[in-house]
Fold this sequence. Notes:
Elements: H1 3-28, H2 51-83, H3 90-94, H4 118-123
Amino acid sequence: MTIQQALALSFGLPVVVIAVYTLFIDGLFSHHKPSKASMSGRRKLSGTYRWKDRLWELNCGILGLLLSQGLAFVVTQILKNACGKPRPDLIARCDPDPNARDMIPGLSNYTICRQTDKLILKDGFRSWPSGSLTL
């Protein structure tokens, strides 16, 4: 899945659902009765809420979506940094020196790696949880 598809699925689709609900469905089918009774017995498109009220609800819905996605991203990134497990390709990322000796037999650290880019090594330990995109 590409990043564009992921954004469309995780942000675009909920925005459309929020917009349809707040602008059309919530105003028409609210439980509050309009102050003036309709002569024809049908509810008009104006419904109980004014467009100003519907736009306010749309604003709150989109801000809530942005807040929830932002918090999910931040919490996921914090968990990945705090307790990330090694990815399966960590040894390939590290490119260990074949002549390196372990300080304690069987245990090594990042000093045996020939990889000079620390971000590539750090990303090798960010395999859990995989709930969001890594940058």
